[in-house]
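Quick one, tokens below. Sequence please?
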């Protein structure tokens, strides 16, 4: 691509979105070309910030004509390097698509732009006594388009399902600029393929989501939050299942370890959450009938052989939740290197053996690495965060963990997506036919492979050779 072409492209993009919304200078694009963990970064020809679906369509048609790759980006809170450019791709930021269009309290739906943050959406729907059903620590910057693109789970998934399960409709733009609008505020619309469901979790490789239609939830009127110290993952799972059998509804169920609680205590200057320094902690939020609290105490009393200590508070119990919600920031702050964040899942029966082999294997083969494991235990989803990993060891330790996950019949990505972080390991748990079909779907929707070209099946080669190589005039 000639330098003239690059500036010609920038001029055409400026005509579409306005010059103020085409960023090319190094300092103005800096926040867009490095991911949240600080590990994944690249260069971009330009960051373009369209205001609505029409402008997104024009921007994509322009890049499509020029054969220039595009990386869609929401709040840039992704944890797998899936929304930052590598070698000159245009970053299409959806942050200006930030209109909360409508909350329908009767149909319990939210219509909003893809750039609306999770927190803004929660605030809008809570005014009507409803909730999004999706919640995650990055709520203040994670966008609705971003949680659709990664099919985010979060801490409430155990009760309300993942983002795909809450998505009724989308408006999205294909790589050639065509606009797909599947927008029926119907719980039952069974005509043809589930295109919204297909775009959920596609990580911006099939289309750019510009608007979302979400199915809302009626939150529990009252909840109880309990932090329980246990000496094994198995004991934690047994307690969680006991709470369900007692007729309580799980609103959230999170696992933490002694190491994670210690890290959070160091970072946040907090005391122990219980009177014991337990090997494992489960943080469970439950709802249920009027006698929910006595049911909860009954379960704890019946399990006193496995409960090392416990504390119960009325929801929302921020004092207890802060231990869990502070994990991500504490890991980033306390690690001497960008943490290796491996969001994985195993069948519940495999969780304990997996964590046992993981801990022993890391100690043996990577003695300098600190492992902080935490996450959504009832989903079988554990966030294996590895601290102090030398850059030269990242791939080896990732390979060790992901192959161990596959060996326990698990998934190498539970809720964060694949991105660039796990691209080399995508064959773990996916057959050749599976990968071929995903490549065929991608080729059908984006035949020129300009959308987020370095990730997921059918991507350009792992060297990051996107469809075109842009000149040196890219912003670094
Ligand atoms: C969380 O559940 O806190 C995040 O998805 C995990 C992480 O930040 O690694
Ligand atoms: Zn999570």
């Amino acid at each position: 691509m000639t330098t003239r072409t690059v500036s010609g492209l920038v001029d055409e993009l400026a005509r579409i979105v306005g010059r103020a919304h085409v960023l090319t200078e190094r300092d103005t694009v800096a926040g867009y070309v490095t991911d949240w963990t600080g590990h994944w970064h690249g260069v971009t020809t330009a960051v373009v910030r369209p205001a609505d679906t029409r402008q997104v369509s024009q921007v994509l048609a322009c890049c499509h004509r020029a054969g220039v790759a595009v990386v869609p980006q929401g709040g840039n809170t992704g944890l797998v390097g899936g929304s930052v450019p590598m070698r000159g791709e245009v970053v299409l930021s959806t942050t200006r698509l930030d209109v909360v269009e409508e909350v329908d309290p009767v149909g319990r739906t939210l219509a909003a732009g893809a750039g609306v943050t999770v927190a803004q959406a929660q605030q809008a729907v809570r005014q009507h006594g409803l909730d999004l059903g999706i919640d995650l620590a990055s709520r203040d910057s994670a966008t609705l388009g971003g949680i659709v693109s990664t099919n985010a789970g979060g801490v409430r998934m155990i009760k309300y399902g993942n983002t795909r399960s809450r998505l009724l409709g989308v408006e999205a733009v294909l790589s050639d600029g065509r606009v797909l609008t599947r927008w029926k505020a119907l719980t039952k619309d069974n005509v043809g393929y589930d295109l919204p469901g297909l775009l959920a979790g596609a990580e911006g490789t099939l289309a750019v989501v510009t608007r979302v239609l979400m199915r809302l939830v009626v939150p529990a009127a009252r909840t109880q939050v309990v932090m329980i110290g246990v000496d094994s993952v198995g004991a934690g799972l047994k307690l969680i299942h006991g709470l369900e059998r007692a007729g309580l509804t799980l609103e959230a169920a999170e696992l933490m370890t002694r190491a994670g609680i210690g890290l959070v205590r160091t970072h946040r200057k907090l005391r122990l959450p219980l009177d014991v320094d337990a090997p494992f902690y489960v943080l469970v939020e439950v709802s249920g009938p009027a006698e929910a609290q006595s049911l909860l105490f009954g379960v704890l009393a019946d399990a006193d052989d496995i409960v090392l200590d416990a504390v119960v508070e009325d929801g929302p119990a921020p004092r207890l939740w802060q231990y869990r919600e502070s994990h991500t920031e504490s890991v980033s702050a306390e690690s001497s290197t960008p943490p290796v964040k491996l969001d994985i899942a195993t069948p519940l029966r495999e969780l304990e053996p997996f964590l046992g082999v993981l801990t022993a294997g890391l100690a043996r083969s990577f003695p300098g690495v600190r492992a902080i494991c935490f996450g959504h235990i009832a989903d079988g989803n554990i966030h294996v965060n590895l601290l102090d990993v030398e850059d030269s060891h990242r791939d080896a330790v990732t390979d060790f963990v992901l192959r161990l996950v596959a060996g326990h019949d698990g998934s190498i990505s539970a809720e964060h997506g694949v991105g660039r972080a796990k691209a080399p390991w995508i064959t773990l748990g996916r057959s050749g036919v599976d990968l071929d079909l995903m490549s065929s779907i991608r080729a059908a929707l984006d035949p020129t492979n300009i959308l987020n070209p370095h990730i997921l099946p059918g991507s350009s080669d792992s060297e990051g050779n996107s469809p075109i190589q842009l000149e040196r005039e890219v912003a670094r």
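The pocket of zinc ion (ligand 2) is lined by residues 375-376, 383, 415 (CB under 6 Å). Residues 461-476 have pLDDT under 50 and may be disordered.
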